[in-house]
Amino acid sequence: MAILASIQQSSPENRDARAQPARPTQSSAVAWPEWPSQASAPTAPAAPPLPAPTTPPALPEPAEPPEWMPWPRFSAALQRGEPLRAPSARCAHSVASGRRKALLIALNYPGTPAERRCGRNDLERVTQILLRLGFQEEWILKLSDCEPGTDRRETKGRDVTSKSNFVAALQWLTHNVVSGDVLFFHYSGHSALHEEGNALLDAYCPSDFAEAGHLPSRDCYELVSTLPKGVRLTMLVDCCVPCSCPQLPFQWNAQSLQWSEDADASSLAPTAAADIVGLGGASEAEMSPEQLTEALRAEQGPITEAFLQAMQELAARRKGPVTFAELLEGASLRLQGTAHAFLQLSATRLFDPKSRSFRFFDAIETCWTRRRMTEARLMEFHSPMELTMIINAASKLRISDEELYHRFVAHDMTCMGTEAFHVRDISVIVTALARVNCVDAKTMSRFCDGVVPTLPEATPLELARLMYACMSVSCHAHDLFTACVLHNREKASSMDPTALSNAAYAFGQCFEVAEVSHLRYLQKIFRHLRLASVASLPLFLPREIVGLLKTYARWQITFDCGQLCKVADRMLACKKHFDMETTVNGLHCLALLMQRNAVRGESGSSQAAWEAHVGHGRGFVVKVVMVVMQRKCVVEKTGLLPWMLGAVMLDLIRS
Asked: Where in the sequence does UniProt note compositional bias of the Polar residues kind (predicted)?
């Protein structure tokens, strides 16, 4: 990312200026020669003038973004009819300041036949999420009629959720916004069909809709369509009745996996320059009265609940951001059984939901600007580290341009002919290309040939990352994998217990992407790691023992029963150093590995030997359990320990 930033900040003119030393002052002790000028012509014949280098047009100098107005000042200025200053043209190129502003509107319609319950809960949950994402309380505007004891019939004339305030709040949200700003809009309330001429439009229902009328979604889009390029606006709309709010020009069809233009797109304002993404509920059938009654009594809005739960579950399941497609699928599963059949995605810019990560803080135009600048300056990157960083950054930005990555690869191959790329550089490059699906067999073959010279310098962890990257793209380079196995065997004999445990876990992750043809290499690697670990068992501490056993148990890797008994002996020898957590984890992993060994040795003449090993393991379990149970302070702190140890013993006895 630092390289991408340097691209934007540097220019050929600046580099030429930095290359020329400054003239000395009169007080300098050393007399520097004067630079050639028109007055002092050289004696040699002048060379023909070189063509002037073509430089890209310089962007205007970044300006400070205009200040935002707090809601009380903005509302008062609107009521007084004061003109609101618009951002200057120089601010269109301002550097992204990380400013974030949000508008949350929650309606329960108290004291009316349309009263609902979930508005206040939705408001509080979304507020907490925004605060965790870095939004400041000062710039989160919350309009709600959900305060306890609030009755709109008693607050007429100062209704904060009226139609006029709704429009004013949207104007506040978009006021003085420039490129790089991040906006969020959430609505929890009712929607209705608004009749306008011969057309029926989906519309929001402010608290005074009976007197002032509905607010069509098209009118809201006209307010936000004036946002400048580089602004990101996320709109999350949670209505009891499924509708097309928020209404944006393009809608994603999850069945056909393609974008379609909104049926009423012709009535919308010109396409917005900003990156606006909308999420709302949709249904293919009419809502029944029973479903409406259930929605009014619900304590959580269905769209808000499904969206937040899907985000939390996906974040807990995997590391890193999730794609739009994964978010839509996860939220739609939670909407089953409700009036909303699925979560509807709409946008002002076309993109690939299967590859674009869901973030509140990215904008398509910014990514495309960086892509163009990166492509123009590509040949300036020469060192392996620079090339690795730029390719990795481009793939993490989800820049889906195959031609750009093909140029990356061609430039890499040229540089690899003059300078050796380290194993870690090739691992990162292959992982980045796999992330955007821009790697083929020919490219992998050349990468594998280029990485061979630096294999002896690689650590086992770097070898594991290289094998993981190659296996993730279905690479079957026999010579490369064989070389990795041999180098790992040489280094395993001199590794300390911590390094052995970490290397085992790193190679274990390869099982998640390995194919059948890859298993033989992994089996050899784990055999070498197992032999090296058993040879250095006297140096192992409880944490390292448990870490090693966890890896072998998690991926069901074979651990010879005789060697497993040696591990049990080592655990018994240092039993005084086992705490509650390591004891339970160690016993459970030991039971799983012994159970696997028992299954493998059920037939044949070795049955008696397996039973002897299992008996040895039972004796170890009983002794360790007695030691732990004697620690009354541990048992008093948690009543869960005896139950967990009992479950571990039961697993072992079943084996």
From this structure: 1-12
Q: Which residue has the tokens 């194919």?
A: 515
Query: Quick check: helix, strand or coil at residue 342?
Result: strand
As given in the structure block, the two tokens for residue 126 are 């979304």
Token pair 């059920």 is found at: 602
pTM (predicted TM-score):
0.52
Question: In whole angstroms, how far apart are CA 13 and each of 21, 53, 57, 459, 646?
Answer: 14, 10, 11, 43, 74
Radius of gyration of the CA atoms of the chain, in A: 33
* Two structure tokens written together for 74: 């903005």
Q: CA-CA distance, 608 to 594, in Å (whole number)?
A: 14
Q: Which two tokens stand for residue 79?
A: 């009521």
517-555 CB burial, b ≥16 within 10 A, e <16: ebeebbebbbebbbebbbebbeebbbbbbbbbbbbbbeb
Residue 637 phi/psi, 5° resolution?
Answer: -70, -30
Let me know: does 432 contact 391? Beta carbons within 8 Å.
yes
Token pair 């479950």 is found at 647
Q: How far is CA 603 from the centre of its chain?
A: 49
Q: What is the pLDDT confidence band of residue 358, given thresholds at 50, 70 and 90?
A: confident
Q: Report the relative pairing of strands 275-282 and 342-347 from DSSP bridges.
A: antiparallel
Residue range 297-322, pLDDT digits in tens: 888 889 999 999 988 888 777 556 78
Pairwise CA distance, residues 312 & 484, whole Å: 38
